[in-house]
Amino acid sequence: MSEGGRDSRHYAVRRVNPFEGVLQVVETHNARAYSPNGQIWQVQVLTQRPDHTWRSFSDAEAVEQFFNFGLWDAVEGLHRIPASPLLDIGDMQAAADELTSVLRRLLEDLPFALIDDYEYWATDYDGRPLALLATTENPRLLHDIRVSRWQATRVSDHSFTSPSLLARDLPTQGHVGPRQHAEQLERQVRQLGQHKAWFRRSSEGDGERLQPKRADTALTAEAFPPLGLKSDWTDDITRELATDYLAWQAPRLLTLQRIDDAQRQWLEQHACHRAAELAAAYRLIPRILDKARLEAARVEARLRRSAVRD
Hints:
By secondary structure, this protein is of the alpha+beta class. The longest helix has 19 residues, at 291-309. It has helices at 89-106, 163-167, 180-192, 236-248, 250-253, 261-271, 275-281, 291-309; strands spanning 9-14, 22-27, 31-35, 41-48, 64-73, 77-80, 118-123, 129-136, 195-201, 207-211, 218-219. It has 8 helices and 11 strands. The model has no long low-confidence stretch (mean pLDDT 91).
């Protein structure tokens, strides 16, 4: 993780459960910015809470927190959002200006290196990782992060459809709700992955089991599903359903940094079927094998947007 300026750092972390891509982060000593696409950045500034001003003559210590200050992009610059007049807007603007100056210099380095090496997995009865539940870069948080179950999509997201289930006359919507295909995959994960464990991954992909401890604490990289979900299920229905899900997630999964060329080629092929989603994730893809294929999909996405506007 290289330095982009004085007292600054930049890095990336995954957005998991459900997987929603890789978040890019830039920090200075008193401000930070984050982006899910490398284009639009949420800028936050660290400053004293407004309620402290009412206690200016007391012995109460100042309480600092991050406040949303605006949105920034390389073309339009910073768009401030309305802020409380009790905040020190001048100091906040100076902090935001320093941050965006650092950020502009770092854009060519996108995507940033992932630092969330601690991974929380649902595991099967033999302790094999099955589905990724959470990640963090901070080992002090391992006791605090608790995830009850794996999610294929957000509850409000009804867009996942499995062609293999449709071929078996299993509709996406039914009496239990509008996301039956996602829920069926989630049920399979719950049934097999009733145990959970924290692992620390090495740069080579190997994993050391941290909590709960077992005699076999070390796992090779091959033991971890590279796309965050087991794909080699024993029954045909679940195996095909999992494959459909990973193909649907392909544009976002392309932003992962620890996948081999065979997986990346497969993801590129399926990502092109979701041109709009691919275009949104494109800037954060660390490596592209078939640039012509992906560029054609991006052109398709632009044409679709133009058609909608017209």
